[in-house]
Every structure is written in C-alpha cells, then in structure tokens.
Amino acid sequence: MCVCVTVGVSACVRIQRGMCVCPAGTVAGLGVEGVNPARGGPAERGGGRGLRRFEEIPHTGSSGWLNLVKFWREDRFKLLHKHMERTFNTLGPIYRERLGTQSTVNILLPSDISELFRSEGLHPRRMTLQPWATHRETRQHSKGVFLKNGAEWRADRLLLNREVMMAPAVRRFLPLLDEVARDFCCQLATRVEKDGGKEERGHSLTIDPSPDLFRFALEASCHVLYGERIGLFSTSPSQESQKFIFAVERMLATTPPLLYLPPRLLWRLGAPLWTQHATAWDIIFSHAEKRIQRGVQRLRSTQAAGGGSGGAEGEFTGILGQLMDKGQLSLELIRANITELMAGGVDTTAVPLQFALYELGRNPAVQEQVRVQVKAAWARAGGDAHKALQGAPLLKGLVKETLRLYPVGITVQRYPVRDIIIQNYHIPAGTCVQACLYPLGRSRDVFQDPERFDPGRWGTQESGEGPGGGGGFRSLAFGFGARQCVGRRIAENEMQLLLMHILLSFRLSVSSSEELSTKYTLILQPETPPRITFSTL
C-alpha cells in the first residue's frame, strides 16, 4: 500500500473579470490557459453566482509559518486526521491550508475528487517525500516508482504492473499468500490451545496480535517478492527480521518532522533526526539487499541449469524472478522497486488488520454474517483460495469498510495538469490538491450512517452514485487511476486471505465496544494496539 502526506506547493492565478463559467467545470475567458470547455463538471454548483477566485477558498490562516508553529506547539500532527475533519465541518467541503512553505487545497466529496482525477494527465504526480528522495540521492540508490514522476515513472510502472497488478500475476502469487495465512492460523491455534483457557466449546486466548500481524505481513511480503519463506513463525524468529520491522516503524515516525525541514542541510549537519531517519532506511535497504542477492544467486543457478526464473515448470518463485526473467528493468531498478514494496508492505497491511479484527470483535453480528459466507465459499472452492475469495465478496467489503473508517494514508494528492473548478472555485493547474480520506469516510454527505461498520454497504453502492455522488470515488485507500498503489493487489489479497482463515478458525471478541483512539505517524494507527480474544470454533 502507498502513503501520501498533506503537503505540496500551490500556485495562485488571479482570474480577470469578464470571464464566463462553462457548464463543463472548466474556465473560459481572458488570461486562462489550458482549459477544455467540452467536459462536464462541478461548475454548475455555484447557485447562480459567478466563478470565485482561488484566493476566496476558505482557509485556516494566511501565515504558513504561524500555522506551522501552532501545529508543532499543539502537537496537531499526531491528530492531523481529526484536524481535517473539524476543519471541513467548520469551513465546508473545500479549504486551503498553509504550513510553512507548503500549501494545499483540501477536498472530500467524491464528485470533486472525480473532477481532480479527470485532470491528472498522462503522468499523474503526487508530492515527493523529500526525506526519502534525499536518502536515495545521498546513498546513491536508484529510485523506485514511488519517488519518480513523468515519463520515467510511467515506463517503469507499466512494466511493474504486469507482475504485481494484472489478473494473471495475482493468480500466480495468490497461493504463496494463502500458504502464509494458513500457517499463521495454524500457529495461532496451537498457541490458543496451549496457553488459552478451556471453555465449553474449546479454548480462548486474549492477546495483542499486533506483533504477530507485523511478522505475518513481512513473511507474506518476502514469500511473494523473493519466492522464499524467512521463518518468522518459528519459535525463535531472526533478529534481522525483527530489526527490519523496527526500522520501518522508525522510518515512518521520523518522516513527518522532516517534511518541513531541508533534508540536505540536516544531512550535512549530521542532525540526530536525519541520522535516525537515514539509519532506518539503511537497515531496510540492507535487509532487502541480502534477500535480493540470495534470490539472484538462486535464479541464476536455475537458469544455468537450463530452467527459467520460475524454477520447475509451472512453479512461481517470486516477483523478483519474474522481473529478472523479463529482463526489461535493470537489476538496479528491480532492487529499488522491490525495496520500496518491502518497506511499504508491512505496517500498511498489519495495521489495517488490527482495525479489522477489532471491528469484527465489537460487531459480532457482522462477524457471523461474514463467517457464514466465508464457510460456504470455502466449502464450494475445495481448497482453491482464488475461488474462495470470489465466492465471499463480504471479505472484500470487510477490507474496504475497515479502510473507510481507518485509511492507512489519510490523503491522496494530485497536481492537475489543467485549470479546474471545484465547488465553484477556480483552481490553477499545478496546484497541490488532496482528497482527505478520513473525513471522507465519515461524512454523512457521502455515506449513510457512517459510524456503522457494515461491509455489506459496498455490495450495493460500490458502483453507484451513493449519497455523495462521484461514482467509485468513495473508496480511495489505495489511491486511484494510473498512480494507485502498486502493491494494491498484494495487500488486498493478503488481508482478505488472513481474515478468511481467521474467521474459519476462531470467534473474535473484545472487552470494549468503544471505537479505537487513533494517531497519525505518516500512517493512521491505533493509539494503543487493541487486545483481541481468539476462541476456537
């Protein structure tokens, strides 16, 4: 999964008087370039008023530096998602925000996000995480697609899509994810029976599952990317892998403060914050490099023996092998992208699983509804994981509903390539506009009864307009369009398969029915990891 943050550079263009508003949602008149009056859009929502200038968009304060000081002093970054929700409630469905030198336009309605999507262009651009880019540059590492833009991004992304996004690729790696999910549940069942209390129907054990979920996510990612297991379910998992998980957490935690400071200056000064961030990335790259080197050696040995990268006929040995076998990306670019997929595939999968298990535990009726469908689908599938997922659409709804309430990345950003109109305000091309996912998922203007946890809502409204309009632009946890999360199919299937096997094996319960408190540290996560009771069926 991909993470976007709430920063970017905004342009500002004053529109001349005498301009007319096209019903197309674009601007026609004097002094505005790159507009297209042939497209339908949101300009008609002005209630008869003329088009409003960019400067008239409601804002949180004109001084970016005073805003930034206030954010730091009040520790608002930790609750940035709540700040966004309050600001939309106060200022309406669009507002501007300046923080330091950074400026964004924030939106939340699906119909407005749809207009943004239509203006993203052939090479969609989102804000570059400069601390990450600086690490690559100072360490002389190549950048993967997450940090690239323009034609170079598109060329690499199209090649990666074939191995991680397309349906044939999913069919190849799905059995590897299923194997890890089954092993996780077998190990958990053994632990529940050994350490749990005896009940009338079996055993139960209450634990914080978050460390186990992090190990599951790393094990699953390695199996899919490298085609090998790394043994994290053993009684003594490797310290190297535990160090990797800690490094990912440290990297995510140190990113937000660095977004508003010059990373290269901090690098030259040897600032402690930069040193922590760069050291975390070094550990991540070192872990990935060791796995990649082992994979490369194994694959070259196989090729020297007369086989392809896939080993025995019909055997899939990882995305690394597929990319090497195609030979269309250099080994250095393969390294860069595999490392990014590794770094982005642990917390962003493990944390939503925590939220999903908790919501199932505090909504027993929903849990049983999903379990009934899963059991029937599993019985019909005869052990075929792909068929089982196809027969249990509530599992997909369960993941979407979890991410509606608890989006891992709380924004999706784009820089429109043409002038657009949103909420009857002119927004110049090149402005950083971001869809704010936490308030979107909880808006009564978009969802009926948004506080209710209901995976079934996606079966009836997924393709329809819904209360907030905008078609499918209500579920955006993985982004949208050509620049959606490159690891989306891995993450979606990884979560669905684990939840399926857990529901087949355990009944979940929690001691509290209250919603979890959350915090933002580049990703949204629980303030305190929830404790879940697993009871054998």
TrEMBL record:
Gene Ontology cellular-component annotations? mitochondrial inner membrane
What are the alphabetically sorted keywords of the record? Heme, Iron, Membrane, Metal-binding, Mitochondrion, Monooxygenase, Oxidoreductase, Steroidogenesis, Transit peptide
Q: Give the cofactors, semicolon-separated.
A: heme
Q: Which InterPro entries match?
A: CYP11_CYP27_families, Cyt_P450, Cyt_P450_CS, Cyt_P450_E_grp-I, Cyt_P450_sf
Which enzyme class, named as a word? Answer: oxidoreductase
What GO MF terms are annotated?
heme binding; iron ion binding; steroid 11-beta-monooxygenase activity
Q: Binding of heme: at which residues?
A: 485
This protein's name: steroid 11beta-monooxygenase
